[in-house]
Design brief:
Elements lengths: L14 H35 L4 H21 L5 H20 L8 H5 L4 H15 L7 H14 L2
Helix pairs in contact: 2-3, 2-6, 3-5, 3-6, 5-6
């Protein structure tokens, strides 16, 4: 019995597809490498637009929010986990307001690529108390480190 079906090797694709696949990988690597540079350009643009006291007003606004978080912790309305969650949110919002970066939705590895190690380190310190079942993190230290980042941001 003769069959009219011609079977082909599983890897008998046109070399065109290998070229397309390689090109997509190269494009992905290039984008991964230049993303921090692009984001740094946005930062410089936004900092220039925040001249003449706007940065100070933004800084004071977020420091006031952090004072509210501290007051809630001191009154017992927030525990350490709640403080770290709220501090992470406010620090990320501050950076978004100052730079325009979408830091509210960025994960730790994306924050590392921003070339702002102090921001990435602070968020990393907030992660453990935010997500652990039990944590012996210091809420007061978390608040102070958040304030310090906002005050020193330039």
């Amino acid at each position: 019995m003769k069959y009219s079906v011609n079977l082909e090797n599983p890897f008998a694709f046109s070399s065109y597809w290998y070229g397309v696949g390689t090109a997509l990988i190269v494009i992905a690597v290039v984008l991964f490498l230049i993303t921090p540079r692009i984001l740094n350009r946005f930062e410089r643009k936004n900092l220039v637009s925040l001249r003449q006291g706007a940065l100070t007003r933004t800084r004071n606004k977020f420091l006031k929010k952090i004072d509210e978080i501290e007051a809630a912790y001191n009154s017992g309305k927030l525990d350490t986990r709640g403080v770290c969650q709220q501090m992470s949110i406010e620090v990320r919002r501050f950076v978004r307001a100052v730079t325009g970066w979408p830091t509210e939705t960025m994960v730790y590895l994306e924050l590392v690529r921003l070339d702002r190690p102090e921001l990435a380190e602070l968020v990393r310190q907030y992660y453990e108390p935010e997500f652990a079942y039990y944590s012996d993190a210091d809420a007061k230290a978390a608040i102070e480190k958040g304030k310090e980042l906002i005050i020193k941001w330039a």
